[in-house]
Specification:
Elements: E1 11-13, H1 27-30, E2 50-55, E3 58-63, E4 66-67, E5 86-87, E6 90-94
Antiparallel strand pairs: 1-6, 2-3, 3-4, 5-6
Length: 102
């Protein structure tokens, strides 16, 4: 799984679109976006592309075109309580290095 620098699982929403994210407003309380103030860097050994997308959530990080979020109920490294949840117009999945580009 892809994680934040603190080790929290990163997720993507199947119905999300980078320029106009489906997760906004109330959704962001449960699924905070991964925001960046610089250029994100992938960990060693992970292939793919990290980009920063300017959208209504701010400068949001995307992996292979999929916007990334954390889940408010994940409290510790390795938690993945958001996996498979159907909410906010799609299904939430943990982002993995094998996530295919959009």
């Amino acid at each position: 799984m892809l994680t934040t620098p603190a080790g929290l699982t990163l997720y993507y929403l199947t119905s999300d679109v980078a320029a106009t994210p489906k997760c906004s407003a109330a959704c962001l309380t449960h699924w905070p976006p991964l925001l960046s103030t610089g250029t994100p860097v992938l960990p060693s050994g992970v292939s793919g592309t990290l980009t920063v997308v300017q959208n209504s959530n701010g400068s949001q990080v995307a992996y292979n075109g999929h916007l990334l979020y954390t889940f408010a109920n994940d409290k510790a490294q390795g938690d993945s309580k958001g996996e498979g949840i159907n909410a906010f117009g799609g299904t939430w999945h943990a982002a993995t290095p094998g996530l295919t580009p959009m």
